[in-house]
Amino acid sequence: MEAHLLQGLWAPDNHQQHAQALEYLQQLRESADGWRMCGATLTNGGPQLDDKVKFVCLQVMEHHARNRYAAATPEEQVHFRQHLSQWMTALCMCTDPEKVFIQNKTAQLMSLVFVVDYPTRWPSFITDLLSTLSLGPHAVQLYLRTLMAIDTEVVDREIIHTQAESDRNTRIKDTMREHGVVELTNSWYDILVKYEKSHPELVCHCHDVIGAYISWIDISLIANDRFVCKLVDHLKEPLLREAAADCIHEIITKGMDPVTKTQLIESFVTVLDQAGVLKPVDDDDSDFLVKLARLINGIGVQLILSWQNINQCLGGLHRLDKKESEKREMVRQAVENKVNLLLTFMASEYDDISAAVFDFARDYIQLIKQMGAITAVERGLLENMLYVVITKTKYDENYNFTQAGEDEAMFDDYRKKLKVVFDNLAALVPELVLQVSKEYVLTTLNRWQSSPYEDVEAAVSLLYNLGEALPASHGNHFSGPSQCLVQVKTSTMQEMMQLLVTSGVSGHSHPAVSLQFFECVARYEKFFTSEPHYIPGILAAFLDTRGMRNPNPRVRSRTSYLFSRVVRCLKSNIVGYTEDILSQLTDLLVLAPIDNGQIPPLLTNDDQLYVFEAAAMLIIAGNTEPGHKEGLMRNLLSPVFAKVTVLAERLAREQDPVNQASIAKSICHATAVTARTSKAFSNQNSIQACGCVQLYLDALQLFINCLNVGVEREVVGAGVRQLMHRLVVCLDGESLLPLLPPASQALLHTPSPAVLTEYLPLINQIITKFQKEMSPFVHTIFMPLVSAIFTALSEPIEENDEEEQRTRRLLQRSYYLFLTTIVSHHLLPVLAALDNTILQQVLMSVVQGAVEFPDPVAQKNCFVILRRLTEAWGVKDMGPPGFVEFLYTQVVPACFLAPLKTTFDLNDAQTILALHESVTCLQTVYRKRGDELITYLRSQYFPKMDLSPELVNEYCQALTSDAKVFRNYSKIFFQRAKS
C-alpha cells in the first residue's frame, strides 16, 4: 500500500494532494484487494505505524466488512479474520496503550465480523475473545470496547434494524445466552476484582458493559451476592462510584416481574443503606451525587411502575384479590419508604442533583392520585415536597440578572421543571397548596423589607404561579360558585392580592421582584375589577420609577407591555383617570431624537408602541363626545406628525447615508406609532364614531409625502404599508380609496421583486374588504402592476444567488394569490376588459404556474383561478373570445400534466390540496361543457396518454360522479400513472 499518498487526507488546503488522497482512499475501498493491502499493512507495521495510516486501513477494512465480507469466499473470510486477530494481538501486547479512536475502530471492526460469523462460521468467537484477557490491561480495554461495539450492533434500541437484522440479532442473543454469557459474566467479575486498585478506568468501563448487557441476560448472573457486594464497595470508591451507580441503575431498570423487581430493589436499598451510601449530605462530590440521585430516581420510578403493573392486573381498585392486593400494598409501602430519600435529594443545594429526581416526584404524585384517598402520612410527604419546591424556586445569590449566561439559562430551565411539580401538587391537593402558599406569601410580604430579595421574589412568584396551577372559571380567581373550596380559594387569593398591592413591595429595589410584581398585577387584573379602589395605586406604580421609569431597562420594557395589557382589560374602570394618565405619559410619548448621542431614551421604540396603544385605548374607551375624543387623539398624535414634518424636510436635505438611514428609521417608527393607535378602535367605538377619520387620512398623506422624498424608500415604505394595513381595517372605502392611487404610486416607484412582494398582500387585503368598490382602481393599476411583476421575474439572476431566487419564488406565489383574490371578489370584469393579447399572457402565466411552479400552495391557487374563470366564462358567449378553446388547449391538459410531474408529491398534504383543486377545476369544465368534454377526452386527449379503453371508461365515469368520489379516484389514478 502506498501509505504516503494518504497524507493528503490531512492537508485540505493543498487541493491537488487532498484530491489525490481521496481518490486513492476510494480506490482502496472499491478494490477487491484493498482490504488485503490494508490488513497486511496493519499486521506488518504493527502499533508503530502512523496513527493516520492505521485509521485509514481500519476504515477500508470496515468498508469491506459492511459491504462484501458476508458474501466473500471462505478462504477470503479466513484471511480477513487472520489479519484482524493478528492486529488485535499486536494491540494487546504493545507497551503503550493505543489511541482511543484506533481502539474504538478496531472494536467496531470486530463487532461487524462477529454479527456475520457468530455462531455459524466462528462459534469460538467468545472463547477466543476471552483468551486475550491474559495478555494484560491493554487486552482488557480492547475486550471491553469490543463488547460495547457488539452491544451497539446487536442490542442498541436506538438503531433502526431491518427485519432480517432483527432476526439475526435475536439468534445471536439466544446463542450467547446458551453458550458464553456465564463465561462473560465471570470475566467481568474478575476484572472488577483484579483491576479495582490498579486500573480504575478498566473497572468503570466494565461497569458500563454490565449495564449494557443486563437488559437481555439472566438477572441472576449479576444480581447475586458477589456482584452486589462488589458494586456496593465500588460506590464508596471516589474513582469508581459514578460508573457503579450507573451500573446499578441499569440493573434495577431491567424488565422483570413487578414483585421480583421490588424485592431486588429493596435488597439493593438495604445494602446501600447499610453501607452508608445513601447520605448525600455527607458528600461534596456533586458529580457522584447526580449519579446517586439518578439511581434514587430510577428506584422510585421502577417501584411505581411495578405498582401500576400489579394494579393493572387487578383490574383497578374494584376487583378484590387478597394475594394480589397484598403485593400491591407491599410495593406501595416500598415507594412510600423512599419518599424521604427523594425529598433529601430534591432539596439539594445543587440544582442538577435536585432535577435528577423530578421524574420520581411527578410519578409519586400521580400514584397518590391513582390510589384515591390520601392518608395522613402521604399528605405530610406531599406538604414536605411542596416546601422543597418553594425553597428551590428561590434564585441563587450568584444569579446574574444583568448579563445572563449559561448558568442562568440552566436555572431558568430548572425552575420551569420545578413549576411542573408544583402544578402537579396543586392538581392533587389544591387546598394544601393554597394553604401553604398563603402562609408563605403573607409571612414574607409582611416583612419584605427585612427579607432577602430571593425570598420576596419567590413569594410573589408563588402567588403568580397559583394562577395557572389552580383552576378558575374564565381566569377569574376572585369570584365563582358558592362551593366551600371555591369560596376559600377566592378569599385566600383576595387576601394575598390585597397584601401584594398594599405592602409596598412594588417599591422593592431588585428588578426580579419588580418584574414579578407587575406580572402578578397583569395576571390578576380581575382582582381590580372587583376591588377598583386599588387601581390608582397600581397605575401610579406603572407610571413612576417602580415601572416604566424604573432604573432597570428590563423592568421598563416589560412594564410597558404589561401596562397596555392592564389598560385593555380594565379600560372601563380606568377611563376616569384618562387625562391624568396622559399628562403623566407625556415624556414617554416623545419620539427619541435621532442625534441623541449616547443617552438612550427611557423606552425603546418597541416599548413605546405599547404605551401609545394604551393611551389610545384610554381615549377611545371614554364616555365623552366624539369631538372630545378626536381632540385627545389629535393631542396624542400631533407632536408625532410635527416631528415627522421636520424629519421629512431634513431627509430631503441630508447627504450622509448614515444620517439618512437614521432619519428614515425615525419616520418609520412614527408611522408604526400612528398605526398602533388605530388598534384602539372597535366595532363599538369605530374610527368614524369617534370623529377621527380625517386625522388618520391626514396622517397617511403625510407619510406618503415622506415616501415621495425619494430617500430610503424601502424603510419609509415599510411604515406606510403597515399604516395602510391598519387603516384598511378601520376605514370605509369612501374615505380610504381616494388615497390608494397616490399611495400605490409612491410605494411602487421602484418595483423591485421585494417591493412588489410586500405590496401585493396590501392590495389583496383592500380587495377582500371593498370588493366591487375597488373595480376602478384595480382596472387602472392591473396592467402596470402585472407588467412590473413580469419584468421583475424575467430579470437575469446569478445561478447561486439563493436569496434572490427565494425572493422571486415569493413574488410568483404572491402574484398568483393576487389573481386569486381578484377572481374571488367580484372583479372578473377587470380581466374581461383586458386586451385579448394581454389576457392571453396572464392566462398562460396561470397555466404555467399550475403545471411548472413547484409550489403546491401556488399551484392550488392557480387551479382556483382557472376554476373561477371557467365558472364565469365556460359557457359560449359568456367570456372573452377564444376562452372555450383555451379550456381545451390549456386548462384540461394542465389538470393532467401537473399531477404527473415528478415534483408533485402525492404524499404531501399541501400537494393533495392542489390535486383536489385541479380535480374540482376539471369537474367545473364538465359542468359547463357537458359531454363535449367527455368526447374531447376520449377522442383527442386520452389517446395521447396511451390509456386502455377500460381505464378511459373508468376515468370518464368517475369524472361524472360526485366530487368526493372523483377526488378519491383521481389520487389513485395518478399514483398508478406515476408508479
From TrEMBL:
InterPro entries: ARM-like, ARM-type_fold, Exportin-1/Importin-b-like, Exportin-T_C, XPOT. GO terms for molecular function: small GTPase binding; tRNA binding. Coiled coil: none annotated. GO terms for cellular component: cytoplasm; nuclear matrix; nuclear pore. It is found in: Cytoplasm; Nucleus. Residues 327-977 form the Exportin-T C-terminal domain. Keywords: Cytoplasm, Nucleus, RNA-binding, Transport, tRNA-binding. It comes from the Eukaryota. One of its GO terms (biological process) is tRNA re-export from nucleus. Transmembrane segments: none annotated. It holds the Pfam family Exportin-T. Residues 101-248 form the Exportin-1/Importin-beta-like domain. Belongs to the exportin family. tRNA nucleus export receptor which facilitates tRNA translocation across the nuclear pore complex. This is Exportin-T. It comes from Petrolisthes manimaculis. The lineage of its organism: Eukaryota, Metazoa, Ecdysozoa, Arthropoda, Crustacea.
